[in-house]
Amino acid sequence: MEMKEAIIARRSVRSYTGQPLDESVINELSEFISEIKPLHDNIPVDVMLYEKDDFHKEFARSAMYRATNYVVLRSAMSVQGYLQNVGFIGELIALWITHRGISSCWAGLAKQKTLPSRGELPYVISIEFGRGDNAPFRRLPEEAPRKKLHEFLLGEISRPEFLPVLEAGRLAPSAINLQPVRFLTNDDSIYICRKKPSLKYRYLDNIQQIDVGIAMANMYVSCDGECTFVRQSSPPELPQDIIYEYTMRLKKR
Questions:
Q1: Is residue 138 a contact partner of residue 89, using CB atoms and an 8 Å limit?
Q2: Do the beta carbons of residue 179 and residue 146 sit within 8 Å?
Q3: Predicted confidence (pLDDT) per residue in 32-82, tens digit
Q4: Is residue 105 a contact partner of residue 53, using CB atoms and an 8 Å limit?
Q5: What is the pLDDT, as a whole number, of residue 190?
Q6: Beta bridge partners of 46
Q7: Measured distance between the N- and C-terminal CA atoms of the chain, rounded to whole angstroms
Q8: Partner of 55 for a Cys bridge, out of 19, 70, 194, 196, CB 3.0 to 4.6 A?
Q9: Within a 10 A sphere around the Cβ of 147, how many other Cβ atoms?
Q10: Which of 22, 39, 36, 60 is nearest to 192 (CA)?
Q11: Residue 105 φ/ψ region, left for φ over 0, alpha for ψ in the -120 to 50 degree band, beta for the rest
Q12: Low-confidence residues of the chain, pLDDT below 50?
């Protein structure tokens, strides 16, 4: 399976066989992580791989987390874009895991039991992964429980080559599947935005910024990394309930 195919194939899996992964796969994953180009290379990020027992020693045990392996993402905080950066890095890892035929799920409820030790970056979020128990990968995008593409759009699609990129963003997972990401296009750009959470879900504001980074990673993979992401100081005018996040520009081929 190619990384692009993993965008469709990946689903959130919460039941695992317990069969350990080959050490060679973990080593290859470590190498992949070391080569990731982050969304913001000026924000310190630490990505660590844990086996199940070590993860449960350091993080509050939850019946939800039964995988054999975990990715733990830590980051410098109070820096604009750090949550989107973590989401971007984490989703690239999740897609790599999927392309190797391994199941995964973002572990948004995991909590570190103790405060970070001196010199350790603060914990942000984890991803669990392992051999899924009766969890086949998706074959078609229609199998994903997502809104239709037009529900993500703020206006019409300005260029046909934007369509597969927008579709990849549509398929991205999000916290409790609220799908907050929105898109606006013009002649040369895709504006990546986010719908403000309602009062009921205001507690998800931070996690939805991670959701934005996750969608951006899908979009990045869909165009083979032939794009740039920037934050504009003067973004386009948007509806009152929409927050501007990034501008994506595809490189000319």
A1: no
A2: yes
A3: 999 999 999 999 999 999 999 999 889 886 656 789 999 999 999 988 999
A4: no
A5: 97
A6: 74
A7: 25
A8: 70
A9: 10
A10: 39
A11: beta
A12: none
